[in-house]
User: Which sequence fits this backbone?
């Protein structure tokens, strides 16, 4: 499994310049690394439909046709067209699984149980085994919150290592759901480190989800939010202590967060041997 820290080529959707210009300007001004803008995307959430890189030359695309977009088919990007434009030799799976619902560790990934309702034609155990075979890792299944329309694991947890996960502050969740999370944590014998979590009542908004940061090489790009100075500072302090070998770069997000995503959602990175690029775009 190629982890984000091991990647060397970073992408965003060109639609950010059109749909979220103020946020994009702040992102671009804070980026330490060169990046490339993807053409031909139908929305900005490229993490969800871009491939999972298992090794240098092995990329796998799961089917991007989530139930939450059943009435907005115009927002579903053509994965094959985009991968072909990048000269990525990709293997395609018929399993419906968003990239935002795959949190990667060295030998493990975390998904939520939303995968079962998204793939009703497959038996749960067979589905897990098939994903494990594709990704060559152990799959850990966490519960999705009932009212979370996305059901993505990247808004819930991150691996610090294969034995330890970062997780949103548990006390913020309703009691029943918190117990379900604790059951999963105990089942997989994971250590946890809680990070600030200050979500709003808006069921779409991702404001307050600090855990959806972008990890790339030596840097953690951390989303921060308006009128949340105390929790912003707490998140920066905690991430700085956990990732002492990285630079923590806070980036204020407004419209992107209100639309339901953050820095991990809008980015995708891979490890390439010889990337043929020009600054700011992909050839």
Assistant:
């Amino acid at each position: 499994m190629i982890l984000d820290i091991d990647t060397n080529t970073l992408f965003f959707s060109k639609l950010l310049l059109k749909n979220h210009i103020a946020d994009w300007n702040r992102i671009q001004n804070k980026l330490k690394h060169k990046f490339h803008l993807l053409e031909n995307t139908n929305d900005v959430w490229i993490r969800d439909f871009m491939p999972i890189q298992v090794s240098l030359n092995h990329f796998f695309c799961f089917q991007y046709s989530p139930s939450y977009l059943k009435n907005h088919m115009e927002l579903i990007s053509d994965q094959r067209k985009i991968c072909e434009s990048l000269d990525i030799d990709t293997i395609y799976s018929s399993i419906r699984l968003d990239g935002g619902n795959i949190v990667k560790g060295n030998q493990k990934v975390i998904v939520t149980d939303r995968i079962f309702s998204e793939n009703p034609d497959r038996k749960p155990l067979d589905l897990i085994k098939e994903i494990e075979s594709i990704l060559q890792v152990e799959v850990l299944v966490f519960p999705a919150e009932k009212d979370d329309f996305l059901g993505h694991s990247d808004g819930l947890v991150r691996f610090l290592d294969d034995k330890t996960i970062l997780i949103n502050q548990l006390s913020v969740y309703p009691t029943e759901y918190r117990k379900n999370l604790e059951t999963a944590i105990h089942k997989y014998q994971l250590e946890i480190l809680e990070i600030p979590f200050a979500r709003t009542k808006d069921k779409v908004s991702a404001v307050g989800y600090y855990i959806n940061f972008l990890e790339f090489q030596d840097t953690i790009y951390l989303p921060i939010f308006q009128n949340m100075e105390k929790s912003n500072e707490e998140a920066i302090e905690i991430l700085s202590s956990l990732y002492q070998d990285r630079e923590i770069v806070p980036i204020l997000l407004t419209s992107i967060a209100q639309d339901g995503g953050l820095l991990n959602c809008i980015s995708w990175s891979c490890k390439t041997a010889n990337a043929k690029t020009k600054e700011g775009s992909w050839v």
Remarks:
- Helices lie at 16-19, 21-30, 79-85, 114-118, 124-135, 175-187, 229-242, 255-258.
- Residues 229-242 form the longest helix (14 residues).
